[in-house]
Amino acid sequence: MSALSPKVQNQIAMLQQMQQQMQTIGAQKAQYEMAVREAKRAIEELNDVADDAPVYMSVGTVMMEKKKEDVLKNLNDKIETLELRIKSLEKQEGMLSGKFEQLQNQIKQALEGKPQSAS
Description:
This protein has one domain: Helix Hairpins. By secondary structure, the chain is mainly alpha-helical. A hairpin with a 2-residue loop joins β1 and β2 (about 60-65). About 75% of the residues lie in helices and about 10% in strands. It has a two-stranded antiparallel ribbon with strand order 1-2. The longest helix is centred in the last third of the chain and has 45 residues, at about 70-110.
């Protein structure tokens, strides 16, 4: 890499950092999507339970008996929050992806010796 200009070396380092950020965002998004699927599955299971049946919910390290409607509300709120976070991550992912491609093209042009267009 010593044959590369300091500017290109810096751009490559930024590209690697962006790639790590995109991987982190992807992992968070996958984690939230899995939590949404689990909550939706719990709602499906609760729909098969009688309204007066005892329902238990994990609160920290303790299981507590709750009303079915309260548990359903809690799960729906959780899904709504997680879906907002997923949308936010998707927006970040899209912006980062655009910057990544732009920087990748700048590096490619610099390595090929072509003049870079002003951005």
